[in-house]
Amino acid sequence: MIPHLTDTPVLETERLRLRAPKSSDFEVLAPFVMSDRARFVGGGADKDIGHAWRVLAIITGHWHLRGFGTFVAEVKETGTPIGSVGPWYPGDWPEHELGWTIWTPEAEGKGYAHEAVTRARAHAYDDLGWRTAVSYIDARNDRSLALARRLGCTHDTGAALPDRDEPLQAWRHPAPSQGGLQ
User: Fold this and answer.
1) How many whole angstroms separate alpha carbon 74 and alpha carbon 80?
2) How many CB atoms are located within 10 Å of the residue 177 CB?
3) How far apart are CA 62 and CA 73, in angstroms?
4) What angle do CA 130, 64, 27 make, to 5 degrees?
């Protein structure tokens, strides 16, 4: 028997369901983590299946340790997992983060990430009580930088950054009082 995360919320958007990770997500997550498409989020073509498994375990474990975590976004119509999105706050992160990944090339360019992050941000502000959030983005990740701008984020050059080798930037989400719930 495989235990499930039973107390996690399920969020919905027009096209997506945001839910806790489950073991069957590995079939879609693993090829992403082991591809060059994941190079900005700790994956890459040099990663193996074991690394991909540990990524799923980290995402799942965060829920148990923090009481919130990254949701898996699945297309409502098909139930197909397409990425991950949501609140993230590892022990060495200076601030609460909203993160996102789209796992398959077929799901890119359809507005799924914007739709999911907008809903996850409302959850972080309304349900978790966050007053602010950042997204730490690799300075070379043009697609994520464009999405951050589309979400109304601004580059916060004074924000503390996680201690990483990558050239990260902090993008500040609009606060609830600034319309950050839309």
Assistant:
1) 5
2) 9
3) 16
4) 105
**Residue 159 CB-density burial (10 A; 0-12 exposed, 13-18 middle, 19+ buried):** middle
CA distance 11 to 20: 10
* C-alpha distances in Å from residue 73, one per residue of 48, 78, 116, 167: 23, 12, 7, 27
Tell me which residue of 105, 108, 139 sits closest to 148, measured CA to CA: 139
State the Cα–Cα distance between residues 40 and 137, nearest whole angstrom.
8
pTM over 0.85: yes
Residues in the chain: 182
Detail the DSSP E strand segments found in 20-176. Answer: 71-75, 81-88, 97-102, 134-138, 154-155, 168-172
> 3-state class of 131 per DSSP?
coil
Q: Is the Cβ–Cβ distance between 151 and 173 less than 8 Å?
A: yes
CA–CA gap between residue 55 and residue 28 (Å, rounded): 12
Determine the residue type at 174.
Answer: P
Per-residue pLDDT of the chain (182 residues; tens, 9 = 90+): 466 677 899 999 999 999 999 999 999 999 999 999 999 888 999 999 999 999 999 999 999 999 999 999 999 999 999 999 999 999 999 999 999 999 999 999 999 999 999 999 999 999 999 999 999 999 999 999 999 999 999 999 999 999 877 789 999 999 887 765 55
Tell me if 76 sits within 8 A of 65, measured CB to CB: no
